[in-house]
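Q: Could you fold this chain for me?
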Amino acid sequence: MANSSSGMAVDDECKLKFLELKAKRVYRFIVFKIEEKIQQVTIEKLGGPDETYDDFSASLPADECRYAVFDFDFTTDENCQKSKIFFIAWSPDTSRVRSKMLYASSKDRFKRELDGIQVELQATDPSEMSIDIIRGRAL
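A: Sure. Below is the predicted structure, expressed as structure tokens.
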């Protein structure tokens, strides 16, 4: 069993689906969850390419930590279509302290498994990851 210093195991499915999001753009977002009983990061939800940022925000639980990636499309001031892949560490104030510690201690190792993340965001409530903040960080 992994302990907090060695980090969490990562289900291969997490890496495969992230590659599909990055290369094939078959998903708009992925929400990841740590399964504490098996000490492994797994996929909780896959958001289809037609889903919006609001759909993504609504899929994060109000009182539990999660990791997530979101593929954000935007237009630059020069009118170029671009996209950036955001990694969001969701750690609401109302979540359990043990859960917050577990997610915090495993974050860097998990993030290293996902090659191609361009922007990282830490959020403790929805206002810290509003669409305006995402847009501001993307430009």
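A (continued): Residues 97-113 form the longest helix (17 residues).
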